[in-house]
């Protein structure tokens, strides 16, 4: 089976533990209004077989150490769960861990369940807090995301939740509190990270000739992000 990759990022310290090799899979079921990777949305990308992909990843094996490894991101990696499922044995053979960075909005197929079950860590990008806001800003409802979250709790998978904080949409304590309500008390959640909206992907909208709904929005102030993260950290410490 072939997989379709948008791009790679060598040795990033984000998107999981330790030093990571990022594999950005092509294709996404969502259309987040603030997306900074609209070039990952449609089908396309570079074709790889599982062996070819793992051969490429293996070149970085020495740098991974105990905690590092590969992170499948996107786009939405679980849209290509069948391919990742076929890739997992080759990664295991090389002793390489993998993390999945997902919106949780893809079908929870057998392949997707296998891929989540075998991951070292899952990063769940929680876009919005209810069906209405999820639909308004991503084009899809929240039900698949909630199913994925339940599944992660059932299998006790180590999970980090992340949310992009966008000025004028969710950059306040009331909104962030609503996200917390969704997963508070779930034992699989190890941490909740807030990420500030930025404008680095804006040029892609221009290049692709598509409308950018946030073209007049400024990046989130660092101070606001810090305040909201402090709020979250304190809330999660409460029993
Ligand atoms: S899930 Fe990620 S890649 Fe897909 S539209 Fe949203 S921000 Fe963009």
The level of helicity is 25-40%
CATH class: Alpha Beta
Largest sheet: 8 strands, mixed
Indicate how many domains the architecture comprises: 1
Radius of gyration: 17 Å
Number of distinct helices? 9
- Form type: globular
Walk me through the structure.
With 239 residues, the chain is an alpha/beta fold. It has a single domain, classed as Alpha-Beta Barrel (TIM Barrel). 37% of the residues lie in helices and 21% in strands. It is built from nine helices and eight strands. An eight-stranded mixed beta sheet has the order 3-1-2-4-5-6-7-8. The radius of gyration is 17 Å and the shape is globular. Iron/sulfur cluster binds next to loops.
Keywords:
239 residues; alpha/beta; TIM Barrel; eight-stranded mixed sheet; 9 helices; globular; binds iron/sulfur cluster
What's the SSE blueprint?
Layout: E1 3-12, E2 20-25, E3 46-48, H1 50-58, H2 61-64, E4 69-73, H3 81-93, E5 98-102, H4 110-117, E6 121-125, H5 131-138, H6 143-154, E7 159-165, H7 173-183, E8 189-196, H8 202-208, H9 222-237
Parallel strand pairs: 2-4, 4-5, 5-6, 6-7, 7-8
Antiparallel strand pairs: 1-2, 1-3
Helix pairs in contact: 1-3, 3-4, 7-9
